[in-house]
Specification:
Organism: Escallonia herrerae
Distance between the termini: 39 Å
CATH superfamily of the largest domain: Glycogen Phosphorylase B
CATH class of the largest domain: Alpha Beta
Family: Belongs to the cytidine and deoxycytidylate deaminase family.
Pfam family, one: dCMP_cyt_deam_1
GO molecular function: cytidine deaminase activity; zinc ion binding
Strand content: 5-15%
Strand order of the largest sheet: 6-5-7
CATH topology of the largest domain: Rossmann fold
Domain CMP/dCMP-type deaminase: 119-210
Shape: elongated
Length: 210
């Protein structure tokens, strides 16, 4: 199951036919509360974070009820959802369906949770730089890196008025640039304020041996 906006993008990409012949697999879509704008582009991340918890419970509950009573459709035996889709827990509990919630945090995100208390005790967190830089999307992101020679570098996300969100500088990109400018190219530990998105993970992966 996905939202209607992404489902429409999926159909336009011809990927919806990739599962033809698999009668036991079906796509379903619900609205996420945001307008269906034209164009092949991602909806605003911050707007999605605010809209999904408020607007997706009712349509998801209706979808589960419909699936449970539809002829020719096996009964819903379990709901497997992403960790940020916590509204699915409430809907599944109301209908008596087990729910499995996956929180797919990254390794560096896990380290952040494990060592955050120590960073607070040493004064590295919360990042002071975050208090001086405005964040357009209201999602504050920061990263701390321990270099191979024992120095500590920081990075924060940078966003610019009048430019698309994909022109932003991610905290990890800030961190790597900061360290290279100071003559260091290797980190032994990274701690981030939130789980990195796919773009940030890809950036770190591509520069791991640079």
């Amino acid at each position: 199951m996905g939202c209607m906006y992404n489902h429409r993008r999926l159909i336009c990409s011809d990927s919806a036919t990739a599962l033809d012949g698999l009668s036991s697999f079906r796509f379903a879509a619900i609205p996420n509360g945001l307008p269906l704008v034209d164009g092949d582009t991602t909806q605003g991340t911050w707007l999605l974070c605010k809209s999904i918890p408020k607007n997706c419970l009712a349509p998801f509950r209706d979808l589960l009820s419909e699936l449970k009573t539809s002829e020719g459709v096996p009964p819903v035996s379990c709901v497997v959802s992403d960790g940020v889709m916590s509204f699915m827990l409430e809907a599944a509990e109301e209908l008596g369906v087990p729910n499995v919630l996956f929180w797919t945090t990254s390794a560096c995100g896990f380290l952040a949770y494990a060592y955050y208390c120590q960073l607070v005790e040493k004064g590295f967190m919360p990042l002071k730089v975050l208090r001086t830089l405005s964040c357009l999307c209201a999602l504050h992101m920061g990263v701390v890196g321990l270099s191979s020679d024992g120095r500590v570098f920081i990075g924060t996300n940078l966003e610019f008025l009048g430019t698309p969100l994909h022109h932003s500088v991610h905290a990890e990109q800030f961190l790597v640039t900061n360290s290279v400018m100071h003559g260091d190219r290797r980190f032994t530990h990274l701690v981030v304020s939130d789980g990195p998105c796919g773009h940030r993970r890809q950036f770190l992966q591509e520069f791991r041996n640079a």
